[in-house]
Amino acid sequence: MTCTEFLAQMTDYFDGDVEPQLLEEIQSHLCECHHCEILVDTTRKTIRVYRDHQVYDLTDEVRERTVARIMAACTTPRA
After folding, report:
1. Which of 6, 18, 52, 78 has the lowest CB atom count within 10 Å?
2. What residue stretches are annotated with the Putative zinc-finger domain (predicted)?
3. Integer Cα distance of 22 and 19 in angstroms
């Protein structure tokens, strides 16, 4: 399995929706590929943080400023 093939299956992997043979291939790839192993670990931690933390109510002003900064960061080319 290549990294690209793993990435194509990653959502199903996290959902537990892969056939046993494919799961074996994924696990084998993760044992051999440090980059994908880090990706899985980071994704798991991100999911855990998201699930464990409460939702904060933001004022309209703070929400608008936050969205504007995120959009600016997404559309501004990096040097």
Report:
1. 78
2. 3-36
3. 5
Contact of 3 with 36, CB cutoff 8 Å: yes
Q: Residue 63 CB: number of other CB atoms within 10 A?
A: 11
User: H/E element holding 46?
Assistant: helix 34-52
> Within 10 Å of residue 59's Cβ, how many Cβ atoms?
8
Q: CA-CA distance, 58 to 24, in Å (whole number)?
A: 44
- What pTM, to 2 d.p., does this model score? 0.62
Run of H or E residues at 29: helix 20-32
